[in-house]
């Protein structure tokens, strides 16, 4: 049975409920199968399916490994997409009986139709997978506690920067990235394009988002204490994270080189920031009242009177992209911002862009519990004050660690860091509107607070 003709409607109903679907702000006009590849035959069987989703003018491609079974065991019911001629069609990432084949094919470096499976080391294959419950834009399969295989859900033609930078950092001997073991690719628009990558699973790791969240919860639970007085103070970890970030930036510069941004390019970047702001204001009217202050920050950036060093950077740096293991901080997910075109994500940028991303994340960590009034009790003004205090303490510690380990000192480049932070917050407004509308309040309230604070240079010291 070919799915091509039958899957479209089923998927169109199911897609908007998937965390990784990046078009929740618009209706779906059409879903069509671009290609499908049988990877396991029989019952159960596995088809690797690439679909094209049309929403107005925009067409995005996604990959869905589709499982087919005549009888669907209870443990897979939640993964069901629908039924075709009585056969259960489901998201196969949740079926370890089927996902094994991905690992086996990578181990064998084999091809299946348009799909190429590759590995760069001998792989252990007798491992069951579990779809990661992490809050993420793609889907990761954890094999045993040995490997993690990230299936990129929304596909872009070309090598994924996550794979590209992980390889480069491994070559530069970075001690802050997990080992890369393999990948899956296919041709899209005539270019070799990444579908998945397989890395070492950091079994002793906890991600920075969880650690920071625990620290914030500790603070909210102790109404009388300040951020530096509670047991879960995170500032020392933030400082170490800053240092690890500076080391990764150094290794990226070694692996991929550096350049200098001419004044015209700085102005062009400021113009793009304005354009992104305008686009976000059109899509999210709640942003409009802050547009003036945001624009001022972008104008100040356009006038920065110094050569800006650029290099390959992480591109979407936040607390969910770092893990603390027993040996220190590890950085993950060098994919860049998933909504941006690939060529933009691969473009060298100023390293403070990553610093700004992490600074925004401290704000998110402090505020996300406040989104749901039931998650935390207390006076809203006092909670807002405490969120701000926690974020400031950790932001400062991160910047100190970064500068002391040889990174560009954020405190000495206020116009740059402020513009990058605002630009990131504007991106987040769009990201939340499209992916997690109930979180939109977080970047909006940070923008309100940031725009109320004095502009760089206007402070009395
Ligand atoms: N190598 C790894 N070892 C252990 N956990 C990992 C590893 N890579 C990612 N994770 C977990 O998966 C989450 C999402 O990973 P990430 O690469 O950021 O995916 P996405 O691009 O889909 O957001 C991380 O926050 C982390 O909790
Ligand atoms: O991890 P991804 O590469 O998929 O990044 C996207 O999703 C992130 C959320 O999962 C989003 O990050 C935003 O939310 C985080 C908390 O969930 C917060 O720590 C970040 O600071 C905030 O930007 C990221 O922007 C998006 O590209």
Automatic annotation (TrEMBL):
Residues 235-372 form the Aminoglycoside phosphotransferase domain. Its EC number is 2.7.1.175. Monomer. Keywords: ATP-binding, Carbohydrate metabolism, Glycogen biosynthesis, Glycogen metabolism, Kinase, Nucleotide-binding, Transferase. This is Maltokinase. Coiled coil: none annotated. Gene3D superfamilies: 3.90.1200.10. It catalyses: D-maltose + ATP = alpha-maltose 1-phosphate + ADP + H(+). Belongs to the aminoglycoside phosphotransferase family. The keyword S-adenosyl-L-methionine does not apply. GO terms for biological process: glycogen biosynthetic process. It comes from the Bacteria. Residues 14-95 form the Maltokinase N-terminal cap domain. Pathway: Glycan biosynthesis; glycogen biosynthesis. One of its GO terms (molecular function) is kinase activity.
């Amino acid at each position: 049975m070919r799915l091509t003709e039958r899957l479209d409607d089923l998927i169109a109903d199911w897609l908007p409920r998937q965390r990784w679907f990046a078009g929740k702000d618009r209706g779906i006009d059409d879903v069509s199968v671009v290609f499908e590849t049988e990877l396991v035959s029989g019952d159960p069987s596995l088809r690797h399916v690439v679909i094209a989703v049309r929403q107005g003018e925009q067409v995005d491609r996604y990959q869905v490994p589709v499982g087919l079974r005549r009888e669907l065991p209870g443990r897979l019911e939640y993964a069901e997409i629908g039924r075709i001629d009585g056969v259960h069609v489901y998201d196969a990432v949740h079926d370890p009986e089927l996902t094994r084949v991905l690992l086996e094919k990578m181990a064998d470096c084999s091809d299946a139709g348009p799909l190429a499976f590759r590995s760069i080391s001998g792989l252990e294959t007798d491992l069951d997978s579990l779809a990661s419950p992490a809050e993420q834009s793609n889907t990761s399969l954890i094999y045993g506690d040995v490997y993690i295989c990230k299936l990129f859900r929304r596909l872009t033609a070309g090598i994924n920067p996550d794979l590209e930078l992980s390889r480069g950092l491994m070559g530069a001997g970075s001690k802050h990235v997990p080992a890369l073991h393999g990948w899956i690719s296919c041709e899209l628009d005539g270019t070799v394009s990444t579908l998945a990558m397989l890395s070492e699973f950091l079994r002793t790791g906890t991600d920075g988002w969880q650690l920071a969240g625990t620290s914030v919860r500790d603070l909210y639970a102790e109404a009388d204490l300040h951020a530096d007085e509670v047991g879960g103070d995170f500032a020392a970890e933030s400082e170490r994270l800053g240092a690890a970030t500076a080391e990764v930036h150094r290794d990226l510069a070694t692996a991929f080189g550096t350049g200098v941004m001419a004044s015209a390019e700085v102005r062009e970047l400021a113009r793009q920031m304005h354009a992104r702001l305008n686009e976000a204001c059109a899509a999210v009217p709640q942003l409009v009242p802050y547009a003036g202050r945001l624009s001022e920050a972008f104008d100040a950036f356009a006038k920065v009177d110094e050569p800006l060093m650029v290099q390959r950077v992480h591109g979407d740096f936040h607390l969910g992209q770092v893990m603390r293991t027993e040996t220190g901080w590890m950085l993950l997910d060098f994919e860049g911002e998933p909504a941006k075109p690939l060529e933009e994500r691969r473009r060298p940028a100023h390293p403070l862009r990553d610093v700004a991303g992490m600074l925004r994340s401290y704000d998110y960590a402090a505020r996300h519990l406040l989104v749901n009034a039931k998650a935390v009790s207390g006076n809203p003004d006092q909670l807002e004050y405490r969120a701000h205090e926690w974020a400031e303490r950790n932001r400062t510690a991160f910047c100190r660690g970064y500068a002391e380990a040889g990174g560009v000192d954020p405190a000495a480049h206020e116009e740059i860091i402020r513009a990058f932070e605002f630009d990131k917050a504007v991106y987040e407004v769009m990201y939340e509107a499209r992916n997690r509308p109930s979180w939109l309040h977080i970047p909006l309230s940070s923008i309100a607070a940031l725009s109320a604070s004095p502009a760089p240079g206007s402070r009395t010291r």
